[in-house]
TrEMBL record:
It comes from Marinomonas vulgaris. InterPro entries: Pirin, Pirin_C_dom, Pirin_N_dom, RmlC-like_jellyroll, RmlC_Cupin_sf. Residues 222-308 form the Pirin C-terminal domain. CDD domains: cupin_pirin_N (cd02909). Pfam families: Pirin, Pirin_C. It comes from the Bacteria. This is Pirin family protein. Residues 61-139 form the Pirin N-terminal domain. Belongs to the pirin family.
């Protein structure tokens, strides 16, 4: 029987992806305790502020100069799906939308015809370290939707379905379903113009938590999908009878079951799956279009309109330290998760 593994790849900060996905970054930073203003309670003197990606002392300021993160910047032609396992993100954008999310929440933003946003990482604890763990996934838009109106939505952790699957030994594996139905779990709706909004495109974004000694079967989907399994925490597992090590990605046949048998410590995976869009991709920096001419138009439009401008007092906009998790939409509606 042939292997279901088509390719195995080493993982760095930026992970390899396939159509319809464009990019996946894994941010895993053990930030120190904070000052009262949510900045790191540590010296920043030896860091290349504005471009700090080296991971000095296990954390990065990225493009931030006071608070870690990514100050205001534009996008056009695709979507960002930001899944935060630990820590918090403060969002602000050119539509006037804002929010603080984290601790299991997902933000799904359709850049569409153009948007500016900032993603800052406020450090809220002054007594303990402030770990941050998140995935940012770029999901392409088909040509017909590249100029769709921008859209911002929150998938709160409390509302995101999870499925526990018990193996023959009585051990439960947990699957968190951000996109793509799994068993009876129906995900929260994707934005209306997303490639994931059509179930026929078989887009799946799952987080899979396999305890020690557990077995879990990744079920077959339809043939011809892009399907990549990222092993980002743990030691080693048996993956379809092959030994898989942490910090590896596995490009899989999409129409074959794949058994994971974990004999090491708890193992965690991200699954990205979807029907390829199959269109030409022209990308430069924050813009993803189908032709070079469309890219040139994107830059020209941004210079002319700034995609609505920046309505916030700071490019590295953060919210009140005591704000809690919230979403403020462009129409002024404010939403908070329902916490038990």
């Amino acid at each position: 029987m042939s292997s279901p593994i088509l390719q195995r790849l080493a993982l760095q900060m930026f992970w390899p992806t396939s159509d319809p996905f464009l990019f996946c970054a894994f941010h895993n930073d053990l930030y120190p305790s904070a000052n009262h203003d949510m900045t790191p309670a540590a010296s920043l003197n030896n860091r290349p502020l504005g471009q700090d990606f080296a991971g000095i002392d296990g954390w990065r300021m990225y493009h931030g100069k006071r608070i870690p993160g990514f100050p205001g910047h534009p996008h056009r032609g695709f979507e960002t799906v930001t899944v935060v396992n630990k820590g918090f993100v403060d969002h602000a954008d050119s539509m006037g939308a804002a929010g603080r999310y984290g601790q299991g929440d997902t933000q799904w933003m359709t850049a569409g015809e153009g948007i500016q946003h900032s993603e800052m990482f406020p450090l809220l604890s002054e007594e303990e370290k402030n770990p941050l763990e998140l995935f940012q996934i770029w999901l392409n838009l088909p040509s017909k939707n590249k100029m769709a109106p921008p859209h911002f939505s929150m998938l709160w952790n409390e509302e995101t379905p999870t499925v526990s699957v018990t193996d023959a030994n009585g051990i439960d594996t947990c699957v968190k379903v951000i996109a793509g139905r799994y068993q009876d779990a129906v995900p929260l709706p994707a934005p209306p113009h997303s490639w994931a909004a059509d179930v026929q495109n078989d887009v799946a974004i799952w987080l899979i938590d396999v305890p020690e000694h557990a077995e879990w079967l990744l079920p077959a989907a339809t043939a011809g999908l892009s399907r990549t399994l990222y092993f980002y925490e743990g030691e080693q597992v048996a993956l379809a009878n092959f030994v898989a090590s942490v910090n590896e990605a596995f490009v899989l046949k999409s129409d074959v079951d794949v058994l994971i048998h974990n004999q090491g410590k708890r193992a965690k995976f991200l699954l990205l799956q979807g029907k390829p869009i199959g269109e030409q991709v022209e990308q430069q920096g924050p813009f993803v279009m189908n032709t070079r001419m469309e890219l040139q138009q994107a830059f020209a439009d941004y210079r002319r309109t700034e995609f609505g401008g920046w309505p916030w007092p700071k490019q590295d906009q953060t919210h009140d330290k005591c704000a809690g998790r919230f979403a403020q939409y462009a129409d002024g509606t404010i939403e908070q998760p329902e916490v038990d």
